[in-house]
Design brief:
Elements lengths: L1 H6 L11 H23 L5 H7 L3 H33 L3 H16 L2 H9 L1 H4 L2 E5 L5 E6 H4 L2 H26 L3 H9 L4 H31 L11 H12 L2 H30 L8
Antiparallel strand pairs: 1-2
Helix pairs in contact: 3-13, 4-5, 4-9, 4-11, 4-12, 5-9, 6-9, 9-11, 10-11, 11-13, 12-13
Length: 284
């Protein structure tokens, strides 16, 4: 009996040899070695040029513009998306129809097409005005002055984001058990307080992952604004390589900064996910 117990003691058990896992590790090691040799041994990457322009003033300015555009599009898109999501969840049918049309329109048209359209808005509306419909006009502005590459980029990206974020918010709010709202009403909570204190804290667990991914997507999507001569990160490196013809190293500069910003955003997203997932993690 004692001998059998000694043989079955898991503390002294040895792991089973798994040849396929070791083969997989070996293949990865070979591929990684080939990648390192390719990156270090190919002189056409021109790493010295990459280092030279990595912190170039115009590149840093373009990086700042890219981050600014992404933040502005995310903030404005979140506000508009929240309103559209509320309309989708409302019991008023015309509001739901308008919200459905909004999401279908701005999610269905490619962002590049929307950016070019908004940049050329002055062709349709030479003058922008504020006033009462079919009544007096309080102010008028030249559309070519108002619709600059910056305003066109912010409008286009914000509208695209509002459509995607509306669906994300709607799904997050819908994921909360309706019994939570019923319990809040039974306790005397008003609708606004129920939303802020009961529904949203639980919905954020569902909202944060796709919303964070959407923020990363809009950051990368800002590269599209280079087609309307917006001085973002990609446009900044394009200006340099159009002058020096060093295309590959300048694209590597852009790739480096995109990766840095996306990595930081991903780390922040993971932290938010852990915060709002407290109390919902499965026991291990």
């Amino acid at each position: 009996m004692e001998e059998s117990t000694a043989r079955d003691d898991v503390a002294g058990a040895r792991g089973r040899f798994r040849p396929l896992r070791w083969l997989f590790v070996l293949v990865l090691a070979v591929l990684a070695a080939q990648l390192v040799v390719f990156l270090a041994g190919n002189d056409r990457f021109q790493w010295d040029v990459v280092a030279k322009y990595l912190f170039e003033k115009s590149v840093m300015a373009g990086l700042g513009t890219t981050v600014l555009l992404a933040v502005a599009a995310m903030v404005l898109g979140s506000v508009a998306g929240g309103v559209v999501a509320a309309m989708q969840l409302s019991g008023f049918a015309p509001a739901r129809w308008v919200a459905t049309l909004w999401v279908g329109l701005f999610r269905g048209i490619p962002p590049l097409v929307q950016l070019i359209f908004w940049f050329n808005l002055a062709y349709l509306l030479p003058a922008l005005s504020i006033g009462i419909p079919f009544g007096p006009v309080f102010g008028t502005w030249d559309a070519n002055t108002v619709i600059t590459p910056l305003t066109a980029a912010v409008i286009g990206l914000s509208l695209v984001e509002s459509a995607y974020l509306a669906e994300i918010f709607r799904a997050g709010v819908s994921s909360v058990d309706p019994g939570q709202r019923d319990a809040a009403r039974a306790m005397g909570y008003p609708p606004g307080q129920t939303l802020l204190r009961i529904v949203l804290p639980q919905a954020m667990r569902v909202i944060i992952p796709p919303a964070g991914s959407q923020f990363i997507n809009v950051l990368k999507g800002t590269a599209l604004v280079s087609v309307i001569a917006m001085s973002d990160l990609l446009h900044s490196v394009q200006v340099i390589y159009n002058r020096t013809y060093e295309i590959v190293p300048m694209l590597l500069v852009a790739c480096f900064w995109y990766l840095v910003v996306v990595t930081l955003l991903t780390a922040g997203q993971r932290r938010l996910e852990r915060r709002f997932s407290r109390g919902h993690r499965s026991a291990r």
